[in-house]
Amino acid sequence: MRTALPVVAPFVALLLGLTWYVQRNGFFWDSILLASKYGQWYYQTSFSTLFVPQEMAGYPPLFGMYLAAGWHLFGKTLPVSHFLMLPFLLGIVWQVYLLAKRYLSGTWVFLGILIVFLDPTLLAQSAQVAPDILLLFLYLTCLNAILHHRPWLLGIALALMALHTPRSQILIIAVFLTQLLWHVREYRQLSKPMLGKMLLRYLPAGLLLLGWLGLHYRHFGWIGFSRSSDWGTYSTLVTTPQFFRNLGLIAWRLLDFGRVALWLTGGVLLGLSARSLPKATKELLLLLTVPLITLSAVLVWFTNPIGHRYWLVEFVLLGLLTAHLLQVTVKRKEARAGIYALLLVSLVSGHFWLYPQRVAKGWDATLAHLPYFELRQQMLTYLDQQQIPREEVGSDFPNLAAPSDTDLNKDHRTFPAKNLAAQSYILYSNVFNGFTNEELEDLQEKWVVLHEVRAGQVYMRLYQKKVSTYQGVPISF
């Protein structure tokens, strides 16, 4: 533990500082539903039921109940919500350290962890009250439990994954396949008694998962998703063109925000040493590729938007693999230092990657989103000062939720979904990905900017429809 402290302390300080800095930021993106609305339901009902209302249903209760319990103990506030993430964030530091210590040596343990925690998406999710942080912690715990032969820890982590999110349930399969393949590589055999003993550790998770799905089906009449829900259209099977589009999206998410440098570096170094890969390199490749293939094999068949945060496990293991390959493959210290510096610059640059207005960006996947919360509050204050009712202002996700859901206050007013043909005001931000190209053109041609606020890469604009007159009669364009 004494040898670990100097290595992990800077990353503990980083996450403590980040949590302190963002403690007043509201819930963002999918966390508005999966954290705030779920947590508030269990908080308000005092855990009297497992089931949320039909329009919210589809996710297991673990994360929402965790937040609700924390709010009962410490108060239902934004700072409490952010600090409730710290146990998992610090747990991730420890789990990454254990992996780094296994596959790196000397100063490269620290350097490998630094690559991991400079990943833009990991930092961005760490700045939010995000269920994917808990998922990452549980998955890394499973990996270290397998590598360090701790079956009881593995069983506990798997059981929690069974009650967390649909993706954590899918990744239970990835954990099993990883353990199976690792066992075969390690012992060169797999007997039926060994397989039975291995499966025994998955039994509690399997029973919990089947029990939850059974109860959910009995209560709602469906599992997975309801076609009547807001996201039902995103859970249908893809057409052939959409299948290949999903493959492209997965590749884009993996390469995006500076990670392209890690994949290129890792690919080149693997190619140079392909004839004699060390055992440790093969292990890391196994740990990386199994969850990547498992999750991709499921997601690619559905129209559900594929987010950057889905691949946090891969981003962590990619950082460790790249650092490992640099250490064992590149012999010249100057070359290693130069390549490493380029990797760090590439990752830091990811927070500044700005796509054209008509290309959707993963705003919850870099720290570029941080100004949004203050700008949104400024715009809400402006609307109140100008006495513009919110029901007259169209907007888009994630700005459709009430401040009572995003900021945990008592303001239940909401914006209606945008309808440029019927509304006189539109509140737009480049953070919103739901405006079509035609709607963006419409805003430029037939609307005027009534008020704008901006900071960093983020801006918000309040548009008002242009009004002209013909023979004294107002005409809206």
Instruction: Please indicate the percent range of residues in DSSP E strands (runs of 2 or more).
Output: 5-15%
Return the average pLDDT rounded to an integer.
93
Number of helical elements: 20
The level of helicity is: 55-70%
Distance between the termini: 68 Å
Radius of gyration: 24 Å
How many domains, as an integer? 2
Structural shape: globular
Number of strands: 6
Structural class: alpha+beta
Spans of 5+ residues with little confidence (pLDDT < 50)?
Answer: 469-474
**Major sheet details:** 4 strands, mixed
Biggest sheet, spatial arrangement of strands = 1-2-4-3
Oligomer: single chain
The ordered H/E elements are HHHHHHHHHHHHHHHHHHEHEHEEEE
Please provide a brief summary of the model.
With about 475 residues, the protein is α+β, with helices and mostly antiparallel strands.
